[in-house]
Here is the input.
Amino acid sequence: MAAPLATYAHDTTAGSAPAVEARICDFIALLKPRVMTLVVFSGVAGLVLAPGGIGFAPGALHPFLALVAVFCIAVGAGAAGAINMWYERDIDAIMLRTRGRPLPMGKIDPAEALGFGVVLTVLSVGLMGVALNWTAAFLLAFASFFYVFVYTIWLKRRTPQNIVIGGAAGAFPPMIGWAAHSGDVSLLSVALFMIIFMWTPPHFWALALYRNDDYKRAGVPMLPVVAGERATRLQMLLYTLLMTPFVAAPYLMGACGLAYAAGAAVLHGIFILAALRVWRDTDHKSARAMFGYSIVYLFALFALMMADKAA
Here is the structure.
């Protein structure tokens, strides 16, 4: 077992500038900035792809309001990440991948982390509703609720399907972005949701394959721990193949043109090949490669959509 969580104590002496900067960095780390980057990017895609786009023309969303929407999506995602770290601080202290986070290191008091997450959640949802519309605010609130209560608290420690069901929380940003612009939910925004929803299991299981020992130590029933690596590799391939029609949907629905279709075909073809390599291989090298490519792949896919729309 890992050592007990360190006890955090407030510094009653005059703080130095480096100490203040360290505190700020610790709170930023609670927001999971690397995860937030992809969340924000896909949310921007929803804003751009919505009818009218962003700009000053009639029907377009004013750039300032677009920035407010992106800010709300980023803060809402980060707040959910902070609450997730508060709840999972016990297993984060055990896992090699996460034991350097602020809470296991004793740099932030758990009550501070929880309060930080709750306040930012209320702020982001309220601002989204007042500045944009309450449909987008409801979706943002529901995504946060789903990530915290459904995935983190209910599913993660109970079922190997945790990332399949709970992964829906990370698929909401493009739908939120779309709703922030248009005030509604469309079939295209649902297709964007489904792209991320289907992408999440192969992406996360690739990580779980080469971090299998970490999850075993923490007692988290990830699919490789419960069903074994062979079954996990097969599931990764199946989800990658089932993702194909949703990747094609922006073109088939007329939202994107041939440039997107050609680029998406190449990107998704490589993703399928990566999944095939993972399925055939017996070591974890291919899983590491697929995990790394999966991040680039999703960024590139949404970048293609936005570039095609702008062309």
Q: What stands out?
A: The chain has two domains: 18-184, 186-311. Residues 103 and 207 are 22 Å apart (CA to CA).
